[in-house]
Specification:
Blueprint (H helix, E strand, L loop, with lengths): L1 H9 L4 H39 L7 E6 L2 E6 H40 L6 H16 L10
Helix pairs in contact: 2-3
Length: 146
C-alpha cells in the first residue's frame, strides 16, 4: 500500500493534472523561445555597433552605457568589450538552444506517454476562414459609378 502511494505522488492522477503539467511544459518552451529571440536581437545590435565603430580611428572618443551610466572611452577600449559581450551572448544562446531541445524531447515523451493529441492551428484557421466567408456573403456592394 505504501509503494502505491509513492507512485501516485510522482504520476499525475487525473486528466486535469496532466493538462496542467503539459501547459507548464509548453509555457517553459515558449519562455525559452522568447529569451532566445531577445538575445538574438541583442547580438544583432552588438553587430551593428561593431560594424559602425570598427573602421573608425581607435583613438577616437566614444560613449558606452555601463550600468545605466554613460561613460566616455576610446574606440580602442570599447570595441574589444563589445566583441566579448557579443561572444558571451552567443554562448548563452547556444546553451538555451540545448535546453530548448531537451525540453522539446521531454514534452514529446510526455505526449506519447499520456497520449496527448493537439489540434493544429491549420484546421482551426480553415474553420475560421469558412465562417468569415459565409458571413461576408451577405454584404451587397453597388457599382462604383452610382
Amino acid at each position: 500500500m505504501a509503494s502505491k502511494a509513492s507512485v501516485d505522488s510522482r504520476e499525475p492522477v487525473n486528466e486535469q493534472a496532466i493538462a496542467n503539467i503539459y501547459a507548464a511544459m509548453r509555457s517553459d518552451i515558449n519562455q525559452l523561445y522568447s529569451k532566445i529571440t531577445e538575445l538574438e536581437i541583442e547580438i544583432s545590435e552588438h553587430s551593428l555597433v561593431i560594424g559602425a565603430i570598427q573602421p573608425l580611428d581607435p583613438s577616437r572618443r566614444c560613449y558606452r552605457m555601463v550600468g545605466g551610466v554613460l561613460v566616455e572611452r576610446t574606440i580602442k577600449e570599447v570595441l574589444p568589450a563589445v566583441q566579448r559581450n557579443k561572444e558571451g551572448l552567443e554562448e548563452v544562446i547556444a546553451r538555451l538552444n540545448e535546453a530548448l531541445e531537451k525540453k522539446k524531447k521531454e514534452i514529446e515523451e510526455f505526449e506519447l506517454k499520456h497520449k496527448i493529441k493537439i489540434r493544429r492551428a491549420d484546421s482551426e484557421a480553415k474553420d475560421d476562414s469558412n465562417h468569415k466567408e459565409g458571413s461576408a456573403q451577405g454584404v451587397l456592394v453597388g457599382p462604383a459609378n452610382e
